[in-house]
Amino acid sequence: MAGRLVELPEGELVVDCTAEGVVFVEADADTGLEELGQPLLPPYPCVEEHLCDPGDTQVVVGKPLVFLQVTRLKHEAFVLGLHICHSLCDGFGVFKFIKALCDIASGETAPAVIPLWGRELFTSSLAPRITRTHLPYEPLAGATAAADVDVVQSTPPQDMVGRYFFGPAEISALRSHLIPVPSQQQLSRGPVPAATTTRPTTAFELLAAATWKCRTAALGYAPDERVRLMFTCNSRRSWKRDPPVPEGFYGCAVVLTVAETTAGDLRGVPLGGAVELVRRAKFDVCDEYVRSTADLLAARRWPPFVVDRTYVVSDITAVGEEKLDFGWAKRAGGGVPLAGDALSKLVSYFMRCKNAQGEDCVAVPMYLPRSAMDRFAQEISALLPGRSLSSLNTVS
Q: Do the domain assignments include residue 371?
């Protein structure tokens, strides 16, 4: 992380271990932790002031790989604002880096878990074999350059608005919709699976399905247009081979998977059917899928994601951020802010937090054109009888 990325003639990115160091900024603010909100829930005020400027985040070659700012607040609280180059590590790797900082700052002589580069685990084979279809990098069926301009991509940033959701009561209300679909005839317009009660539904599956379904309706896509939900899967957990990914591995080990259907089918199916679409995409990730992804990226030199008519989700509730402890300071709140370039705001990071009652919540940011946000609120409210959207969380 003290080095710099360089690009080889054939286009591959490698780390040059130049020991040039990282950017570290010390700052002071004449505010207290309580002024950031009680309880501490995103979106936090003054986020941009707690992050040092990394410049153009689309440029990674020749730049510092870590930008770290520590802002001292009143009454011994502080804010740690961090940018880490995503080409180097994923969210789980970022947490391992911060955890190592905690270990050293609390007086340990070395991190409890020694960091491991270990990228050969995911190195493409000498003869790349792309054995699976990888929809994150494939165009939507029937799309054309002229027609496939997503309203989310074409709306100016000043006309976009961000909002956060959900509490435990809302998650419970959504679960009440998970009943079996009475008739397969209801699903005759497309390959949307019926709901099932044979497996427990995770909070991620439930929230991803509900927000994807309501977002699609809010954006007014034509019934026959294909829409996608793209989300990350941690191959540290899905990797079944021996040996497994070592605990200290901090590089990128997430792969992308996609659920796809038509806008009309997604709007028409009950919530349980949308949940099954999410499950089908999640359980499609296996060792073969991970290997095929590595070979695809090597063969195409990091092909761009297809994000038109696509809702992108990254679940970071399990990275362990809530367990951070410096010994003399414990984490009070955090997450990924709606800050920086607009592209970063198109990803809904599912984040762990607590409400005023001390209950566990999942903060789900949604970034939409202003007019679509009102329709999204109506769609979500329809799934939450007896609750107004204003009771969920704040608007950024």
A: yes
What is the Cα–Cα distance from 115 to 97, expressed in whole angstroms?
Answer: 8
Q: 393 or 365, which is more confident? A: 365
pTM, rounded to two decimals: 0.87
**Per residue in 248-293, pLDDT tens?**
999 988 899 999 999 999 999 999 999 999 999 999 888 888 888 8
149 and 29 assigned to the same domain: no
Over the chain, what is the mean pLDDT?
84
Burial of 19 from C-beta contacts in 10 A (0-12 / 13-18 / 19+): exposed
Residue 157 and residue 59 share a domain? no
254 φ/ψ angles, rounded to the nearest 5 degrees? -100, 145
Give the Cβ contact number of residue 268 at 10 Å.
Answer: 16
CA distance 213 to 268: 9
Is 86 tagged catalytic?
Answer: yes
Q: Residue 237 carries which DSSP code?
A: H
- Residue 387's pLDDT band (boundaries 50, 70, 90)? low
* CA distances (Å), origin 220, targets 127, 225, 272, 306: 44, 10, 21, 19
Residue 60: inside a domain: yes
Number of domains making up the chain: 2
- Per-residue confidence (pLDDT) for residue 195, from 0 to 100: 47
pLDDT digits (tens, 9 = 90+) for 160-204: 887 777 878 888 889 988 875 444 444 433 455 544 445 689 999
Report the CATH number at residue 351. 3.30.559.10
Judged by DSSP in three states, 87 sits in: coil
- Candidate list 50, 75, 83, 86, residue with the active-site label: 86
Tell me: do 176 and 300 sit in the same domain.
Answer: yes
Task: Give the span between the Cα atoms of 239 and 287, in whole angstroms.
Answer: 6
Closest CA to 283 of 193, 165, 364: 193
All residues at 6 or more sequence positions from 190 whose CB lies less than 8 Å from its CB, including other chains: 261, 262, 264, 265
> Do 52 and 153 belong to one domain?
no
Crossing angle, helix 271-282 and helix 203-219, to 10 degrees? 120
**Shared-domain flag, residues 142 and 66:** no
Q: What is the pLDDT of residues 80-123, one digit of tens each?
A: 999 999 889 999 999 999 999 999 999 999 999 999 988 887 77
150 and 80 assigned to the same domain: no
